[in-house]
Amino acid sequence: xxxxxxxxxxxxxxxxxxxxxxxxxxxxxxxxxxxxxxxxxxxxxxxxxxxxxxxxxxxxxxxxxxxxxxxxxxxxxxxxxxxxxxxxxxxxxxxxxxxxxxxxxxxxxxxxxxxxxxxxxxxxxxxxxxxxxxxxxxxxxxxxxxxxxxxxxxxxxxxxxxxxxxxxxxxxxxxxxxxxxxxxxxxxxxxxxxxxxxxxxxxxxxxxxxxxxxxxxxxxxxxxxxxxxxxxxxxxxxxxxxxxxxxxxxxxxxxxxxxxxxxxxxxxxxxxxxxxxxxxxxxxxxxxxxxxxxxxxxxxxxxxxxxxxxxxxxxxxxxxxxxxxxxxxxxxxx
Length: 334
Hints:
Blueprint: H1 5-20, E1 23-24, E2 32-36, H2 42-49, E3 55-59, H3 69-72, H4 88-102, E4 122-123, E5 125-130, H5 137-143, E6 147-152, H6 155-164, H7 171-175, H8 178-184, H9 187-199, H10 202-214, E7 225-229, H11 230-235, H12 237-248, H13 253-260, H14 265-268, H15 275-282, H16 285-290, H17 298-310
Helix pairs in contact: 2-13, 6-10, 10-17, 12-13
């Protein structure tokens, strides 16, 4: 009981700050939804946007892995939090839950460090960062009219980052989805999925997970959706921040750009890998984006490319040094 008291006390303090120090009253401007995979720069993107006055960040409102007990009262019991298919009951629960968050009626996963720039005592817009809500993108746009941003990071470096943290590939949740297996996968995709499940390497499994997660995002962006890549964000922060600001009707571009020169909260937590912080602070963007090549062989790249081919991923080539996305220009990898 004693060992759990500090954690319980911290949760209590956070909840008191959320409930007592911030008042959220929606304005006429739409809030913002970020939709993309974990370890893809989502925290940095969220922090950038929340530098704007009266914009509050909500970090992972739909993830059961970081949810508080209060959140679990709202979230439906979906394996691994991959909301691939929702029955009417589960959809209604998610809809009511998001509606309450957007209205400022419930407070979850908000900033609590009131001395930092991303904490605002009065807010009127939210930025919801999700890494497991790819299949809910239409709800964000159609039901809530959110400014929705889908963001990508190349599959191999994203996979290596997850592996380095000891994270699971989550394929068990995609394997358990009859809707995904029988309705969304093509015959060749189902065949490749079964092959990797049977005897794929750790890297192949994570790249396959990237494809499964991003399947609903891989087509042409629908109306009301913006596309951002991690590479463009790091290489061209000013241009990318300006595009985000214009799309989302934000004003403080300089504050947004300044965040790119700092390590995100998630990068700061990488106690065993200071090269990330060093690269960001030293402006070594090319190193930051290409260092993953030192960790894979030519054969592994070829294996990963076969997975991308099966899932018709035309935006990325597995052997591209930077993996720079060309979706915004309508180009394919060279």
